[in-house]
UniProtKB/TrEMBL annotation, chain A:
<dbReference type="InterPro" id="IPR013459">
    <property type="entry name" value="RhaS"/>
</dbReference>
<dbReference type="InterPro" id="IPR050555">
    <property type="entry name" value="Bact_Solute-Bind_Prot2"/>
</dbReference>
<dbReference type="InterPro" id="IPR025997">
    <property type="entry name" value="SBP_2_dom"/>
</dbReference>
<dbReference type="InterPro" id="IPR028082">
    <property type="entry name" value="Peripla_BP_I"/>
</dbReference>
<feature type="domain" description="Periplasmic binding protein">
    <location>
        <begin position="29"/>
        <end position="286"/>
    </location>
</feature>
<keyword id="KW-0732">Signal</keyword>
<dbReference type="GO" id="GO:0015762">
    <property type="term" value="P:rhamnose transmembrane transport"/>
</dbReference>
<dbReference type="GO" id="GO:0030288">
    <property type="term" value="C:outer membrane-bounded periplasmic space"/>
</dbReference>
<feature type="signal peptide">
    <location>
        <begin position="1"/>
        <end position="24"/>
    </location>
</feature>
From TrEMBL, chain B:
<dbReference type="Pfam" id="PF02653">
    <property type="entry name" value="BPD_transp_2"/>
</dbReference>
<keyword id="KW-0472">Membrane</keyword>
<feature type="transmembrane region" description="Helical">
    <location>
        <begin position="307"/>
        <end position="327"/>
    </location>
</feature>
<feature type="transmembrane region" description="Helical">
    <location>
        <begin position="109"/>
        <end position="128"/>
    </location>
</feature>
<dbReference type="GO" id="GO:0022857">
    <property type="term" value="F:transmembrane transporter activity"/>
</dbReference>
<feature type="transmembrane region" description="Helical">
    <location>
        <begin position="228"/>
        <end position="247"/>
    </location>
</feature>
<keyword id="KW-0997">Cell inner membrane</keyword>
<feature type="transmembrane region" description="Helical">
    <location>
        <begin position="134"/>
        <end position="155"/>
    </location>
</feature>
<protein>
    <recommendedName>
        <fullName>Autoinducer 2 import system permease protein LsrD</fullName>
    </recommendedName>
</protein>
Amino acid sequence: MSIFRKLLATAAIAAVMFAGPANAESTKIALVVKSLGNGFFDAANKGAQEAAKELGDVEVIYTGPTAATAEGQIEIVNSLIAQNVNAIAISANDPDALVPVLKKAMDRGITVISWDSGVAPEGRQMHLNPSDTDLIGETIIKLAADYLPEGGDVAILSASSTATNQNAWIEAAKKVLPEKFPKINLVATVYGDDDSVKSTNEAKGLIASHPDLKAIIAPTTVGVVAAAQVVTDQNLIGKVNVTGLALPSEFKQFIDNGASQAVALWNPIDLGYSAVYLAHGIATGKAKAEPGARLSIGKVGEVTLDDTNSAAMAPPFQFDKSNIEEFSKIY
Amino acid sequence: MSAIETSAAPRRIPDRLDTPLKGAVLSWEALLIAVAVAIFVINSLASPYFLNAWSLSDLTFNFTEKGLIALAMALLIISGEIDLSVAAIIALASTMMGMALQAGADTPMLVAIGIGTGLLCGAFNGLLVTGLGLPSIVVTIGTMSLFRGVAFIILGDQAFKGYPASFAFFGQGYVWWVVSFELTLFLAAALVYWFVLHRTSFGRRVFAIGNNPVAAQFSGVREARVKFILFCLTGLMAGVASVLITSRLGSTRPSIAQGYELEVITMVVLGGVSILGGAGSIVGVVLAALIMGMVTFGFGLLNVPGIVMSIFIGLLLILVIALPIIWRRLFGRRPA
């Protein structure tokens, strides 16, 4: 009798133990990055944790291989499948090699999205780009225009003349100029080939041949630093404003000394936040990934999926005196 | 298998001339089995997801491709040579398969080209080492850059994809329930290599060369020929691994299988093969492959960062190499 009672008690305890975690089951979302030990991705994880806190009942697993290889990520995805995670949000090292294993994950009922660096459409339910061509094109002009209420001459210092990304952004920028920024006059586009010395020479050339130049826009992290250095060296701070796409850690000194009012780049914190927000929405059935769908990304806003289920998060994030200190420590 | 070896002991030639303990190889395998069981138990206790047929099946993918190369690499290292170019051979063989695919090759043709490229690369290594008498470590560091370099020149930042559905079977297919094709092939190959190394005169010659090449030559062993065959076999296995991994990834990029050579060599050394040549067993290599697979997968289940995993594998390696030496020092037996 007593043995029976003991057994019963044990069974009851066991039942409670098994039922316990089941009741409090949280949504497990894996944030898989290209490699660990990268400031950009650590910042994305910070955003992911913010999203988890805001959504409640979400556990974020931040993981990635030591070296940025597709094989390493595949081993990680396999172990995530075994752990029955609810969703995988991945920044992929290879758009194709991860497709078979991510398909397997989807077959076993796991929500798969890619962010930052995408996976081919058959290997994920949706992809989140940090930004897109039109948004970047508009932002780089806006960065200059915001500090030129009277309008004036601006010039672009790009990477190489064959750089696909930069050329597309410059095209987009030229497109928005006449209607949105009529007072801004784009006088020249020069190419520094993402080489510090050539970029410096090109920047000097721009200043010499356009005496009324009010701003240099460099949509490349190399060019923007070179231009800001030239403006600093030639004592043109306050006369020529340098702006464009820059890494906060590299560019902080030029915001501090006034050579630049503001620059922009993708915000990894918002990116991690949005990836987790979207993965959670799709995994819990609150959102559906289909072309044309409008999905909420919480405090960051909203995205619209295109024909390939890709979406752009937001215009590049602006860094100025108010926040460069904080972000320069991140990336 | 060890039991069979012991029963044949009366006419057995010792693999390790400085063996202080009777049957050191046997106890080595016993140690590896103990480590494997311990890791299995720890994994089962640490993660509720480990003891699951599909998890265990997924686990095998962490070591089968590298394990296949490790089998041939074990023979090569026993003979006193090494091949550092195996990962690069995978990349080149995969690139060749991709090019054949563009040209309209079907699945059997792709497999033949993958394995054939591996074999040719191995023969190239073998020719340079045995023909010109160059040290294999230098030759294969060179061909490592050469083979992968060719793959990079052909592909650049592009990828070959669109392999036929029937090709996917090799890296993603299952023979029966959770038993994958990769695992079946690995076990079958292990049997073949075990037989060749431990049960044929060719295997004895490999040990003889590794232990004392001069004595082996005086005994009529054609050292260069045996070594050339071993390089060809290693290339061949890298070609086989290339077919599997290309099929598993469903695409080819020149950076494929980056860093695999060191993991393969780790498996071989962990498996008890002497890095100086002359000693080792296939059973040990198979156990080492299993251990590495379980460690990486188990840590993956616990979401342990990869760098901790590398540290653990490194410590394990030093430990298993140091253990017999410490043992010998402690019990102070004179070398035979």
